[in-house]
Write a structure and sequence with these properties.
The chain is mainly α. It has one domain: Methane Monooxygenase Hydroxylase, Chain G, domain 1. Helix 1 runs antiparallel to helix 2, helix 1 runs antiparallel to helix 5 and helix 5 packs parallel to helix 7.
């Protein structure tokens, strides 16, 4: 087999991997949006639909694993070609974890039924979700286009996600301290906010994968992190 044919075959296999990864990313993005909408509308049916999409994500993840292993064994790629294939495995792992976090959020739609309800806190959560979903969309586009600038924008933007998450948690703590009837609702929102913050971390992981593929090295600078809130000390500061 001539080298030109081998190169074309590898390119075709890599394109197939990229298409499958893009399909997986599209499902995961929809899961996040649907999960937050289900929570905001207390739509238990939509929340269950988020979980119902999980098998499709798992199927694509398994397909990517199999395709990547076959490509490595058959083509024995090196240097940037090997990084391309390895990055598919890394990004698909992050997407699978994001799907699980979205499913966790969708499950909370039913848990809010009959609870105290605050449109203001829901708006805070949806604002955080919009930011995180935007980060994910940007980094997946950056991955597809080998766009380091876009990836670094997401990488640096993790601080904004952290700051928004922390502000929401502090607001939730204030509600709970001032009115015990809000505790159940606020804890559910806090749980969902933490899941969104973790999704942001996985988007940052993908940004680092983009940098690794293009540059052939890891980002050495520490991740920009925002302010954090200590739940124990926050509660103690307000007294019993």
């Amino acid at each position: 087999m001539d080298s030109g044919h081998t190169l074309r075959a590898f390119d075709a296999e890599l394109m197939a991997l990229t298409r499958t990864l893009g399909q997986m990313g599209g499902i995961v993005e929809a899961q996040i949006a649907d999960a937050v909408n289900a929570l905001a509308r207390r739509d238990t049916l939509l929340g269950r639909q988020v979980a119902a999409a999980d098998p499709a994500v798992e199927t694509l993840r398994n397909r990517l694993d199999e395709q990547a292993i076959v490509t490595i064994a058959r083509r024995q790629p090196v240097a940037v070609d090997l990084r391309e294939v390895v990055s598919v495995l890394r990004v698909s792992a992050d997407l699978k974890r994001i799907a699980e976090l979205a499913k966790n959020i969708g499950k909370r739609a039913g848990a809010l039924e009959g609870d105290f309800h605050s449109p203001q806190l829901i708006r805070g959560l949806t604002h955080l979700a919009a930011l995180v979903l935007g980060q994910l969309k940007t980094v997946l586009d950056s991955y597809a286009g080998h766009d380091i600038a876009g990836a670094l924008e997401v990488w640096r933007g993790d601080k904004e996600v952290d700051d928004l998450y922390t502000a929401l948690v502090r607001e939730l703590l204030t509600y709970m301290i001032e009115d015990q009837q809000t505790i159940s609702f606020c804890l559910q929102i806090m749980f969902c906010a933490k899941n969104l913050e973790r999704i942001g971390d996985h988007a940052t992981n993908i940004a680092e994968s983009v940098f690794y593929v293009v540059e052939g090295r890891a980002i050495t600078d520490p991740r920009p992190k925002g302010d954090s809130v200590n739940l124990t000390s926050a509660g103690a500061a307000h007294g019993p």
